Every structure is written in structure tokens, then in C-alpha cells.
Amino acid sequence: MHPVTVRSVTIVLALVVGVAACSGDDIGSDSTVALTASVPTTAAPTTAPTTVPETTPETTAPPTSPPTTERATTVPATSAPDPLDEAAYVELAESALLDLGFFPDGWEERPTSEDDDAGNERFGDRVAECLGTDDERVSELLEPREANSPEFAGPGDSSTTVEHQVMVADDEAMAVRAMEDVAISGADACLEQTMQEFFDEEAAADIEQDGVTIGDIAVERIELEEPADLIVGYLVELPVQAADGQTASGYLQVFYLRRGRALSQLQLSSFGTIFDPEGVRLLTGEVITRLDRIAE
Predict the structure, then answer these.
(1) CA 92 to chain centre
(2) Distance CA 81, CA 296 (A)
(3) What percent of the chain has pLDDT over 90?
(4) Rounded CA gap, 251 and 249, in Å?
(5) Interatomic CA distance for residues 225 and 101, integer angstroms
(6) Is beta strand 218-221 parallel, antiparallel or unpaired with respect to 161-168?
(7) 57 closest CA partner among 234, 232, 235
(8) Phi and psi at residue 214, in whole multiples of 5°?
(9) Nearest to 296 by CA among 76, 23, 42, 131
(10) Which of 262, 269, 270, 264 is nearest to 284 (CA)?
């Protein structure tokens, strides 16, 4: 569980550059979609986030089509695996991942690309240097236990995607320390600085060959009602300018959630507009419901 990885930002960067490089019309008019309010079969918990940044961009109206696949109702066992049995932890984490049955008709699964481990290490080292934290993070110790969903993509040519990750700590105290890793003070400013430097040095030349210019990357902490040991959120904005001078932005919203010893990372990416607040509420509510099943 990282406070944003190279791959997660690269996903949005590729999305933004792809749309901008191929633009013949208004690049700010992409058909970003949201989740319909009728998606969950159970009410979303009241602990789901209800606030978004004060500078939230315009959002699009959610679709009206209900899901066509029923979500599995089997509740997995919650007994703690042997601390030495990493495979058992992964299996438990997999049982709490989001699946395609949660999403409305028209959404689809896509395989995720391989993570850039070397890039993540360089990126993480820079963030740690900025924050002044050189010790190994608890979340890094939990990486062998990660379970990852496919990429869920919105209907048609939509640029909206969702990814989900779950991991299980030895106990609640360990999970709380992992949340402290991503909630550390100053993380937003250091992420912003490191991302800008990283992409200026390693991605700018390739991107500019397509006639696309990346502007100043912005990262801000999302204000939420729940305490930071239960949920932390960040909003990343990547502004671009196409060769014809048009401008638009790609967005990445990352939420880190905890229930008991169970941890989750939820990534929402889009172009032109951010994921709508109601869709965020539905998704985080469903994630919390699934984490509760394996929390003890």
C-alpha cells in the first residue's frame, strides 16, 4: 500500500496524453461516467466519505442503468492465517476485492499492467527523502500479501477506470501503523514535488514527441469526515496542453481504507472531470462492507 505509485500515475498520464495527442475536437469533453445510485444491493455505510476538495472540478451525471450481474453473497472466513503463510493472507485479501458484478451494465474488466518495481523504488526513495523518513514502512512489509483487482473500465470510450487492492495485517495495531505511513504530514506536498520532478526527468521527452505538454502536477489531501486511521484520500491532477493549444486535466483519486486488520487502496482515474462524489460514496461504502468481512 503506497501513497500513490509510479504505475498509478502513469495510468492517468497515458490516458491524458492519449486523448490529447489524438484530439481533433475539444479535449475537455471526454465522456467520463459515474456509478448509478442503484448499484449496491446493500446500503452504503454511513462511514463512507461525504466530502470532496473545495476546488472539485465539474462532474458528470451518473448513468441510470442497473447492474446485470449479482454480487456473490458468500462471506469468507475471518480467522487469522498463520503469520508465516503469506499465501493464506493473499487468499483472504482476494475474497474482499471488488468484482465486475458490483458495477453497472457496460463496465468491463481489463488486465492491469505490470508494476514498475524499479521505478516505484526510486519514486518511494525520493518521497521518503522529502519527508525525512528513511525507515522501512509497515506497508512495505505487507506487500507480499497484496491482492489486486483487474482494472474496471467504464462503458464505451469512457476514460473512467477503477482499481482495488486489499492486504491483511497480522493485527489491528499493525494495520493502524500502515495507515500512518500514507497519512504522514506533508505527504501531499512531497508527492506533488516528487511527481513533477520524476515526470520532468523521465517522461517529458517522450510525451512532447506527441505534441503534448504536461503542466504543473497538483496533489491535495481530500478532506474526509472519518479519522485518518480509517480513511485517507488524495487527489492528483495532471494538466496537459495539446499541440493545438487546448488544455484539460486527468485526475487520480486514491483512497486508503482500514477496518480492523484489513487494509484497502482504491484508485479512481478519469479525464476531463473527476469521479463524481456519489460514485465515490458508493465505491468506498462497498469496499468498507467487504473489509468488514475479513477485519477480525
Answers:
(1) 21
(2) 11
(3) 34
(4) 6
(5) 28
(6) unpaired
(7) 235
(8) -90, 130
(9) 76
(10) 264
Q: Tell me the per-residue pLDDT of 10-59, one tens digit each, with 9 for 90 and over.
A: 555 555 555 544 544 444 444 445 564 334 333 333 344 444 444 444 44
Residues 6 or more apart whose CB falls under 8 angstroms from that of 44 comprise 281, 282, 284, 285, 286, 288, 289
Which residue type does 232 have?
V
β-strands 247-259, 151-153: how paired? unpaired
CA distance 265 to 130: 23
DSSP the chain: --SS-HHHHHHHHHHHHHHHHT-SS-TT--------TT--SSPPPTTS-----TTPPP-PPPP-PPPSSPPP-PPPP-PPPPTT-HHHHHHHHHTTS--GGGSPTT-EEEPPPPP-HHHHHHHHHHHHHHHT--SPPHHHHTGGG-EE--EEE-STT---EEEEEEEE-SSHHHHHHHHHHHH-TTHHHHHHHHHHHHHHHHTHHHHHTTT-EE---EEEEPP-SS-TTTEEEEEEEEEEE-TTS-EEEEEEEEEEEEETTEEEEEEEEEESSPPPHHHHHHHHHHHHHHHHHT--
Grid cell listed for 49? 466519505
Left (φ > 0), alpha (ψ -120 to 50) or beta: where does 211 sit?
A: left
Its pTM surpasses 0.85: no
Strand partners, 285: none
Question: What's the rounded Cα separation, in Å, for the pair 161 and 178?
Answer: 25
Distance (Å, whole) CA 19 – CA 251: 13
Q: What is the pLDDT of residues 242-251, one digit of tens each?
A: 777 888 888 9
